[in-house]
Design brief:
Structural class: alpha+beta
Strand content: 15-25%
Distance between the termini: 79 Å
Number of strands: 21
Length: 625
């Protein structure tokens, strides 16, 4: 593979251009190869909690090459392979299947036949299947799929031309023709469910970066043609964790167990099961970690059985992250236990006797406000799926050949605002029969959705009304903060703490949101977000966002909606009022409903009293002499 260099941000190596993702760059198209191409390169990223959840030894991030130094250093980090291989000249329209041997250092593919050597363009359509395989469309087969004679039926030559005619503006104006025998076919119908299957095309059973040495799958799934930039070509599975202090009550056994589980041989021990190599690895770990063999064996048994009985929803692991973070934010000792990576302060609500009634009502619904002056977030890529995000049974690992002992990740530092809400008020509101009936309709759509496994990891086994309400509040909060704090909306992110638990009473009830921003620089961000979490800015911001949520430019269509987005997972939410850039939302702009926030004639919104009081105060101010 030739050393062809292009620039990509470190954070983009996780999403959207992580392993299996397609990168379009100045007219060229590439796909990221799996982590085997990294070798031993990459910077170590430390995140014990996330590593235990994903059952890996650790994480690495792509090494940063100083600006202007790329040509002087050895290759480090991810490899991107040119894809699709079928290219065409925009001038003579001749198609060419590109080989790596034709690459020239730091130069894009060019046509050698035309004057000016124009740059070759990648074909728009590619071939994928539900098992996650991806390859080029067999354009020779497509062009000869409707032969008009014996010569066209027997032609095996791949001298093709991609022709665009002015006859129409649709796919029927584009056609692939064979220069040798004259066979041709337009692209009309290529995107249909059985468009490729009818030509006899089969799934390749591999990924574009795989070589002949890799074992290919005998995939029986019918392939389907999609556009390179289609949203269902790539679904990255990204996990994130806020690094929090180790609880002060953690006993010595927990620390020793953590030391053993962070050892480089731990993942191999769990994978070995009860094989002959297990005993020597246990003895080595016991000696290396200065613990007894019995301790390591008991820890191995516990984790091996937990892994064997784990379900596809990964309930226990995801619970651990949300519960520990919730406890860290709501702890009364959070300020005293702050570290260099997690520095928080609890804020007073700043309630005054002469506050308007809307602010007082808002104070009563809020339990606590915590501003995070500094946080560290780690985001790791576990794998991806294609065509349909159908859960873990379709997951393609970042190392499809063997078990991944480490995952690509990126760490970032920033600041944020955490708000928890009064549990009694939340319970009283969501126990209303009207609220429960309203949310049950959303849950029915959720159960029928192809995203159900992924979304259940965030919502828990039951979709609570508080989750939809707080998720919508977080979106409105981000939109308002983008006006007030100086950050654009795409740089802010959300974490929703409103998950239901499989065992009622085992975990503390959660009802809160955390809005934060994080940057790759080790110095973090500038403090504008923290300022908005201090009195009186926060309460004023919340009143303004609730007032703005009262209406949408798409009303009444938006407000009266009975189902929006994929699988009808949204209600009163659209791009004009509630949807955000995909980098902001942890569940892909789904499970949103302004109705649960501000209410309507049928359903009582949680903040409806606040909104009504604010409107009355505005009316009184206008009528005042």
């Amino acid at each position: 593979m030739k050393d062809i260099r292009r620039k990509v941000r470190r954070t983009q190596t996780i999403a959207p251009f992580g392993v299996g993702g397609i990168l379009d760059l100045q007219g060229e198209s590439f796909v990221a190869a799996d982590i085997r191409s990294w070798g031993n390169q990459g910077d170590i990223v430390d995140s014990p909690r996330l590593a235990r959840k994903l059952r890996v030894n650790g994480f690495r991030s792509a090494a940063v090459i100083p600006s202007g130094k790329a040509q002087y250093v050895a290759r480090v980090g991810p490899v991107y392979v040119r894809f699709p291989r079928w290219l065409f000249c925009p001038k003579c329209r001749l198609m060419k299947y590109w080989h790596a041997d034709a690459e020239q250092k730091d130069k894009p593919p060019r046509c050698g036949r035309c004057s000016g050597t124009p740059q070759l363009a990648p074909m728009r359509f590619i071939q994928v299947c539900r098992n996650g395989h991806m390859s080029d469309v067999d354009w020779r087969r497509w062009a000869h799929s409707r032969p008009e004679g014996h010569d066209q039926r027997q032609c095996q030559i791949r001298t093709l031309r991609f022709i665009a005619t002015p006859d129409s503006s649709g796919l029927d104006a584009l056609k692939v023709s064979c220069i040798t025998c004259g066979a041709q076919r337009t692209l009309e119908g290529i995107g249909h469910k059985n468009g490729l299957k009818q030509t006899g095309a089969r799934c390749s059973g591999n990924q574009p970066w795989q070589t002949s040495e890799d074992e290919h799958d005998d995939c029986e799934e019918p392939p389907r043609a999609l556009q390179r930039g289609a949203s269902n070509v790539y679904f990255p599975i990204v996990h994130s964790a806020i690094e929090i202090p180790v609880p002060s009550g953690a006993d010595e056994a927990d620390e020793v167990a953590r030391k053993v589980m962070e050892h480089t041989l731990w993942a191999g021990l769990i994978e070995a099961g009860d094989s002959p190599v297990t005993e020597p690895i246990v003895k080595y770990l016991a000696e290396n970690c200065n613990v007894s063999v019995e301790f390591v064996e008991a820890l191995r048994r516990e984790n091996w059985q937990a892994e064997g009985s784990a379900t596809s929803t990964v309930e226990p692991a995801d619970e651990d992250l949300s519960i520990a973070e919730w406890a860290a934010f709501t702890s009364t000792d959070s300020e005293r236990n702050s570290t260099s990576e997690f520095r928080v302060r609890q804020m007073s609500l700043g309630e005054l006797d002469d506050d308007p009634n809307s602010i007082k009502l808002l104070h009563h619904s809020v339990d606590r406000v915590v501003v995070a002056d500094r946080i560290r977030e780690v985001r790791a890529l576990e794998g991806f799926s294609r065509y349909e995000s159908e859960g873990r049974e379709r997951l393609i690992s970042v190392n499809p050949v063997s078990r991944a002992h480490w995952l690509p990740a990126v760490e970032s530092y920033g600041e944020g605002i955490f708000i928890s809400f009064d549990e009694d008020s939340i319970k009283k509101w969501e126990s209303s029969p009207k609220i429960l009936h309203w949310v049950s309709g959303i849950e029915e759509n959720l159960e029928a959705s192809f995203q159900v496994d992924r979304l259940r990891e965030k919502t828990g086994p039951q979709l609570l009304p508080r989750f939809v309400m707080l998720h919508t509040l977080a979106h409105q909060f981000i939109r308002q903060l983008s006006f007030d704090s100086g950050y654009n909306a795409a740089s802010l992110r959300e974490r929703i703490y409103a998950r239901s638990h499989p065992e009622a009473g085992r975990y503390a009830q959660q009802a809160g949101i955390f809005i934060y921003t994080a940057a790759g620089d080790s110095e973090g961000t500038l403090g504008g977000l923290v300022r908005q979490g201090t009195p009186p800015h926060l309460m004023e911001t919340m009143v303004r966002l609730l007032e703005s949520a009262q209406w949408c430019s798409q009303d009444p269509l938006c407000a009266d909606s009975t189902g929006r987005s994929l699988a009808n997972l949204n209600r009163a939410a659209c791009h004009a009022c509630a949807l955000l850039p995909e980098t902001c939302c942890e569940i892909g702009n789904t499970l949103l409903d302004r109705t649960l926030l501000i209410g309507d004639g049928k359903v009582e919104g949680f903040f409806r009293p606040v909104v009504q009081a604010a409107f009355e105060e505005s009316a009184d101010a206008v009528d005042a002499p």
